[in-house]
Amino acid sequence: KQEVTQIPAALSVPEGENLVLNCSFTDSAIYNLQWFRQDPGKGLTSLLLIQSSQREQTSGRLNASLDKSSGRSTLYIAASQPGDSATYLCALPGGSYIPTFGRGTSLIVHP
Amino acid sequence: KAGVTQTPRYLIKTRGQQVTLSCSPISGHRSVSWYQQTPGQGLQFLFEYFSETQRNKGNFPGRFSGRQFSNSRSEMNVSTLELGDSALYLCASSAGTANSPLHFGNGTRLTVT
What we know:
The complex is a heterodimer of chains A (111) and B (113). Chain A has 111 residues and is an all-beta fold. Helix content of chain A is 0%, strand content 56%.
């Protein structure tokens, strides 16, 4: 059974800091990995999708890396802003497993 | 391109009643999956429909059921509601291949009293 773990569970930082959110999974036989953000009471907004053959993906201030062999992914947020405050989830959305999600990292960026 | 649309946004029901939630996927997407999100359990997979057929199912009781129509719209039904069914119900659509990303709607907040 695939399991996804996210560390840390919560993070509070001042504006402007560079951040690293971690995601680990137990079975490296994945098709892809997807990072989402979720604002309170809302759905999930897709941030980045990394295919299993890729090592990283970038979108603006966000960079996600994937190391399948070690079962790890990181989401790097550069120059954090208060608008980045949200819960960030990583997920293994496809393949032979049912879609599996981490519990998320709750991020607060204070001015 | 319109996103994933879920209706209604909020529902309040009483124990023992049943409820039906609706999800309209992104145009062209043939897969719709449903999830329950609670503070205690996080985001849990309920089931997935692809081209009107249930393709995958999570570990939920038979009170939770779904269907998909020929236009890919999907409905989820919960019968004999329990207090523990109070949650945010999310649906996601995708193209349905193994490497397709998921796109989520804003969810339906169900409160059972």
